[in-house]
Amino acid sequence: MLASGLIAPSAFADEEPQDATQTVQDVTERPDGVSAQITAKATGHRVEDLSLRTATEQVFANPDGTWTSETTSAARFKEEKGSFVPLGTDGELTDAASPVVGDGTELTVADGKDALGDGPTQDSVVLAELESTGEHEGSTMKLGWEGELPAPQISENQATYADQV
């Protein structure tokens, strides 16, 4: 009875075995420091320790047993379901009525319908508004434009306002 449990089911008999060397060479990140260091030594290239990743830092195990930390002043990762994942860059400006949603922000551009006084001064309109939706939700930055603006032409992720200098 035990022997029957060790026999490969026929459904798996036709599968090609994976090339373990190729799989190991492709590994660039591991869940902890021990496995990152072992993988780095085995592959000859650095491997990220995901347990040390933050919004602004990545830590890599090097094949020679040392560690490298790469830190940035701006966030490159966001926390999602208990781990840090790369920030998306898929936000795209398609029309002025729809905000561009990024990771933790929304960008809205003027649609040509604001009245003078809607901007930061009595003679301006809001050209663009950047609003935080993440950790600092509620923070807003508005960029004003002195005078009125027509509806923009949207093309290739850019808003162009005709006859404006």
Tally of helical runs = 4
Spell out the helices and strands N to C. Answer: HHHEHEEEEEEEEEEE
Instruction: Give the biggest beta sheet.
Output: 4 strands, mixed
Helix content: 10-25%
Number of domains: 2
Uncertain regions: pLDDT < 50 for 5+ in a row? 1-15
Specify Rg, calculated over alpha carbons.
26 Å
Features:
16% helix; 4 helices; 32% strand; disordered N terminus; 165 residues; alpha+beta; four-stranded antiparallel β-sheet
Quick description:
This protein is α+β, with helices and mostly antiparallel strands and 165 residues long. Helices cover 16% and strands 32% of the residues. It folds into two domains: 27-86, no CATH class; 100-160, no CATH class.
Q: What is the secondary structure topology, with strand pairs?
A:
Blueprint: H1 2-6, H2 10-13, H3 20-26, E1 29-30, H4 33-43, E2 47-49, E3 57-61, E4 67-71, E5 77-80, E6 83-86, E7 100-102, E8 105-109, E9 124-132, E10 140-146, E11 153-155, E12 158-160
Parallel strand pairs: 1-2
Antiparallel strand pairs: 2-3, 3-4, 5-6, 7-8, 8-9, 9-10, 11-12
